[in-house]
């Protein structure tokens, strides 16, 4: 893990890595940070994570953990709850464009759809899909392998094997997208 801001192929010079109350984010060397990505405070980003354009991962009031191969897409916000709920995102998760993940737990292999919101204390079970625009309200526990839609979000059925394969393929595609950028040439 590195805490430096040096020029790297996989880090935009326009990404921001900021200490909060003397705590710098812990970011694996393989993490991709796009232009406008903002990472601050008690954040851990494991191997091969990617934080895309204008996404915010703000660990100022509690901790945030993001597991390997997870992608946080454009404009997404990852935050936590003051002295109450950390945010934990397991490996192989895709957080869609403009989604908000706040003080909750996202288990391995999930897809959080574009514009979805997952609130404080919620737990999204492994290999689940939270549909675009869905709102998972405070404290809700979503069982593994669930398709969740609506506001408030409700389980509508189980995720099929084919759907899970697509989630995993999306995660792998984002690893490839990140490799296409070379900020050392900028």
Commentary on this structure:
- The chain is mainly beta and 186 residues long.
- It has a single domain (16-185), classed as Hexapeptide repeat proteins (UDP N-Acetylglucosamine Acyltransferase, domain 1).
- The protein has one helix and 20 strands.
- The strands form two sheets. Strands 1, 2, 4, 6, 8, 9, 11, 12, 14, 15, 17 and 18 form a twelve-stranded parallel β-sheet that branches. An eight-stranded mixed β-sheet has the order 3-5-7-10-13-16-19-20.
- 42% of the residues are buried.
- The mean pLDDT is 95.
CATH architecture: 3 Solenoid
- Total number of helices: 1
CATH class: Mainly Beta
Shape: globular
Residue stretches low in confidence (pLDDT < 50, at least 5 long) are none
- List the secondary-structure elements in sequence, H or E: EEEEEEEEEEEEEEEEEEEEH
Q: How is the CATH topology named? A: UDP N-Acetylglucosamine Acyltransferase, domain 1
Radius of gyration: 15 Å
Going by CATH, the homologous superfamily would be Hexapeptide repeat proteins
Provide mean pLDDT, rounded: 95
Largest sheet: 12 strands, parallel
Helix content: 10-25%
């Amino acid at each position: 893990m590195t805490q430096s801001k040096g020029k790297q192929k996989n880090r935009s010079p326009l990404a921001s890595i900021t200490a909060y109350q003397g705590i710098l984010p812990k970011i694996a060397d393989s993490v991709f940070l796009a232009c406008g990505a903002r990472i601050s405070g008690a954040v851990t980003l494991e191997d091969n994570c990617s934080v895309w354009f204008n996404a915010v991962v703000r660990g100022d009031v509690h901790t945030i953990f993001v597991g390997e191969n997870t992608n946080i897409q454009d404009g997404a916000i990852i935050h936590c709850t003051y002295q109450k709920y950390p945010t934990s995102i397991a490996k192989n998760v895709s957080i869609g464009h403009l989604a908000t993940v706040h003080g909750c737990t996202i288990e391995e292999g999930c897809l959080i759809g574009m514009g979805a919101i997952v609130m404080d204390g919620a737990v999204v079970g492994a290999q689940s899909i939270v549909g675009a625009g869905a709102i998972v309200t405070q404290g809700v526990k979503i069982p593994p392998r669930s398709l969740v839609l609506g506001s408030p979000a409700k389980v509508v059925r189980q995720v099929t094997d084919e759907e899970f394969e697509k989630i995993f393929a999306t995660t792998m595609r984002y690893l490839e997208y990140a490799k296409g950028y070379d900020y050392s040439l900028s």
